[in-house]
Amino acid sequence: MSMRFRIMINLGLLAGIIPAPSALAQEPPARAAGDIVTLTDITYTKVGEAELKLDITGPKEGGPYPAVLVIHGGAWRGGNKKDCQIIMPDLARHGYVAVSPQYRFCPKERFPAQLDDVKEAVRWVKSHAKEHRVDPNRLGAMGFSAGGHLALMLGLTGPSDGLEGAGPDAEGKSDTKILAVVNFFGPTDLAADDIPARSRPLVADFLGATAKEKPELAAKASPLTFVSSGDAAILTFQGTKDPLVPHTQATKLADAMTAAGVPGRVELLLGASHGWGEPELSRTKAETFAFLDRYLKAAGR
Asked: Looking at the domain that runs over 21-297, which CATH code has it been given?
């Protein structure tokens, strides 16, 4: 192959990554570019005076289609929903409605603000499903790094966990259930000793305290805490030489999924860092679509 494709790594722990546009075009699309439509900056909730917005890319006609929340990374403190437009058209061409929500950033806003926001985005998608040709019973999420962490929290928490948010729909505990999660190297245990020293200040900004200062809060913000039977299926990709999120975070998730009977797979990429290039980029991308097809397209069919 004459051109090398790379996933670009942004700042700090849990930085967002998005494949280069060329890499996303390698598979023959199920739909041509003219058969998809993108809507941007749709307000999905208000927090105080601030409006939180999302972008949607999906097939122009037909449906209803399964939907996937695509959650950007950036250490819970940065990144942009528009970064996800690089991959969202590819999802649409494969028969999904892709939704990328904005969420509040730390250190100004601490956990669980970010989870509150993406849960509100799920509620919004379900309540506007008909308008956007979405099947509200076939929702999933994928995310990169911090976005992977939030996607896992979506797939693993429910009303009994006390994390349904503070938005206008939260009091009634409206449904935020999703069926599938694809996690690209998001952390699973924020209280663990294996969090690298360079990453701990960023986790502290997210929590508002160090994990040692508030271990119960760190556990509450950790996907590993909530793994149980009946959770969303999970596909996790993790590099064994990731200097920011150690691969032991993924193996602990694998053990918990096995014990609880949660379907899916945790895959270690030997020698990979916090992101990877070809040939693993194309392979993990293809595995992502195969996984989503299995647990979203086939759901209820």
From this structure: 3.40.50.1820
